[in-house]
Design brief:
Ubiquitin-like (UB roll), 2 domains, three-stranded antiparallel sheet, 5 strands, 36% helix, binds FE2/S2 (inorganic) cluster
């Protein structure tokens, strides 16, 4: 039997009460409540399209049961930046042509943000290949994505240094 629970979830700094089944994945919940910027790909942890940040750490939302999230803050690509005030990684992906169909892009940027925060702020290509090894792209051949990560990381360091 599937139980249901009402949870208090924080998505991109907005708190909301959501009723979920105990077997519901975070990917299913987020898309159900309108966060369709979180992309649904393989639903088995292979593609990274569904990645979100939980307290700043990237997870595959298709492998995360919503009721296990607890009080951790959920950040989707829309929580990192907007069209009016883009995050440096979003700017770099756009300017360097790192997105073609764009389906993988939210997950790529979320995984990159997590890598830059938790692993290294000064990644080389090996770091990037390792950090994004759980994210698949069918369009770009990855070279432009790696270039955008290098450029975005540099912009983030410069922003930090200017504070
Ligand atoms: S949809 Fe979650 S890893 Fe592919
Ligand atoms: S840009 Fe199309 S899957 Fe990556």
């Amino acid at each position: 039997m599937t139980n249901r629970k009402t949870l208090k979830m924080t998505v991109n700094d907005t708190v909301r009460n959501v009723e979920v089944a105990t077997n519901e994945t975070l990917l299913e919940t987020l898309r159900r409540v309108g966060a369709v910027e979180v992309k649904c790909g393989c639903e088995k942890g292979d593609c990274g399209a569904c990645a979100v940040l939980l307290d700043g750490m990237a997870v595959d939302s298709c492998l995360t049961l919503t009721h296990t999230v607890g009080t951790r803050a959920i950040t989707t690509i829309k929580g990192l930046g907007t069209a009016e005030a883009p995050h440096p990684l979003q700017t770099a992906f756009a300017e360097l042509g790192a997105a073609q169909c764009g389906y993988c892009t939210p997950g790529m940027i979320i995984a990159t943000q997590s890598m830059l925060t938790h692993d290294t702020a000064t990644p080389d290509e090996n770091d990037i290949r390792h950090g994004l090894s759980g994210n698949l792209c069918r369009c770009t051949g990855y070279t432009k994505i790696y270039d955008a990560v290098l450029e975005g990381a540099k912009a983030m360091r410069e922003t930090e240094a200017a504070k």
